[in-house]
Write a structure and sequence with these properties.
Number of strands: 16
Helix content: 25-40%
Low-confidence stretches: 147-151
Shape: globular
CATH architecture of one domain: 3-Layer(aba) Sandwich
CATH class of one domain: Alpha Beta
Structural class: alpha+beta
Order of helices and strands: EHHEHHEEHHEHEEEHHHHEEEHEEEHEEH
Largest sheet: 6 strands, mixed
Distance between the termini: 53 Å
Mean pLDDT: 93
Length: about 400
Amino acid sequence: MIESISPTQARNLVLLSQRLPPVKQNGAATTATLSAIEHLGYIQIDTISVIQRAHHHTLWNRNPRYQTDHLDQLMRDKQIFEYWSHAASYLPMRDYRFSLPRKKAIASGSIRHWYTPDHKLMDLVLNRIIGEGPLMARDFVYSGKKVGAWDSKPAKRALEYLFQQGKLMSPHRESFHKVYDLTERVLPTGVDTSFPAPREHARFLISRYLRANGLGQASEICYLTKNMKQSITKSLDEMVSSGQLMQAGVNGKVYYVFPGSLELLDKPQVRMKAKILSPFDNLIIQRKRMQNLFGFDYFLECYHPAIKRKYGYFVLPILWKGKLVARMDCKADRKAGVFHIKNIALEPTLKRIEPFALALSKELASFMTFNGCNDVQIHKATPNTFRSILAELIP
């Protein structure tokens, strides 16, 4: 039997599961950061720095006490590690064993990495790390031409291939550059390294996704994973049959959900607080899902030539009252201390403009501080009248 829930209920379930907006948390700030990573299952890493990088931004939205040194501290304490989720990510160390199937697949060649492996160079790189200890790509001298989409040198590609295979891990980063060491020297004592069976792995991916996202479809749970669709689909059917999962209908689409998750809908939600989201936030990383559930058509335009952009280079979706109601192209000039709102566009469905402007002005004050800025300039708004409305409210 499929239970129908309204689009509003579905959105509330998603946001409560995503912990957006966040609720007050007790204990140490780093503990709250670790809790967010373990609950969400991963935090995507990104290099774009026109504002605070995506991994910091995503965690700050779940933990208002977040500091950018938390990730390095948790890495050095061996409570999280870097590897691949659907993209380069920080992952809970407690889930380490579920990274092993991908590592084995890359080592066997059944999954291809970006680069063609140079086994001779990989052996040379590995032997240097065995003998010298942790090294970075810059520790390998190379004067030739860099190649590939990321202009990487051969030693960097060898390091990354060994990293993807699981022979190397990163104990920490230095100035955002990855440090590499032998996996056995990075893993904490007592971590579970047993290889999960396919059925167990599939159920882990299902449970991790539904815990963090409230409800999901098979295609969403399989998002950018390799060779898992059949196993996940089979496990979903089994879990429904056994009563571990139920099916919920939203706008004619069928989703999977834990029966107990619907109890979240009885919890109060901080709806009037606005949240400015990263393009790589766990909530919105699947654009088709956002279109289906939130009616929000979003595309990250930084990968397009400037002339083809509609909203701007690095546009941030804005959440308010359970909906995605606006998008904002920003740049933080940290040296001058100025936060530039290059463009802010309201969704046509947003009617309560003044209350939204008040909520956004309060969030902007915190967001500017988080980005090292104490002043703001609003260059463009749609509708144009929103520019003056917002400007008058910002301290």
